[in-house]
Amino acid sequence: MCLLTKTIRCEVTPKPLQGYESPQHEAAAFDALWRAHLGDCVHRKLPRKLDLRRPHYRDIREYGVPIQRRVSLILDNFNELCEKLTSHEPGAMERALFKDLYSRVSIQKDDGNLLGFTSHVDSVLTSLKPLAAPSPPEEVSATADAPLPDLFPVKYTLDLDTSHIYRMDDFFPLGGNKQRHVHTLHVTHPYYYFWFPQQKLARAIQACFTFAAAQARHLYGVDTLTPPEPVVVQCTYSDVDSMGFLVYQLNTLRLSNDDGVKNQVWVKEAEPLYSACSHKDGLQGHDGLLFDHYLALYRSS
Known about the structure:
The chain is an alpha+beta fold. The protein has one domain (7-40, 65-299). The protein is 24% helix and 25% strand. The strands form three sheets. The chain has a seven-stranded mixed sheet, sandwiched between helices. Helix 1 (26-37) packs antiparallel against helix 2 (67-85). GO terms for molecular function: structural constituent of ribosome.
């Protein structure tokens, strides 16, 4: 995904990803997780569990909260808790949360390929002011010398779906009379089948690029190749039992080739929210520091 979006990964951790490392909110974060996994009253018959050690054995189907609902409830409970903790801070009333949004942008490459990026996210937190760029102009200029991954002899479009694109129309879901900027994207993986961590991260980077590129073209015009100011987007990517964070800075839309300034991303890898969860034993091994990182992203400006 870094090759498709002309993005390099930076190692220095920006302030929004550092968190607060405070145990004060651990009890409230534990309650938010418990209500999503064990306290919800909506129960359905869940898919049958597969034991890889005994693939021939048909386990009993259990009743519980569907994974799609649990993943969404975790974000809803965390957002509600963040609103309570930041209600007294300046600019708290300027935030708005939108559910179930998608964005679309098309990029033409020099080799003749027309790439269409479409991203659907669980929710988007917006603000009236754009986020400050974590990378100064001199560091942005230095990215021109940073190499992108070389996949030769594999072609970068190997796993992409091929379709006929007749209209290169971009779509930015927040284009209204009152200008709003993307603050934080919430990308979820509400699936029962297995995803590799690299796949989850790539999906989050693709969502950040799509929304940031659509916002840049909405603000500065569809022909914009270098935004006057970098477009910064934060993101959380989570499934039913883990959560990761990243900050994305869009410096250029000149993706026709690999030369010149590149986009930047800072990543905090996904970590487990808990070690075990069941109605019999409850929620065990809860990591309260992950919510502090979530709150740090919510508070950033």
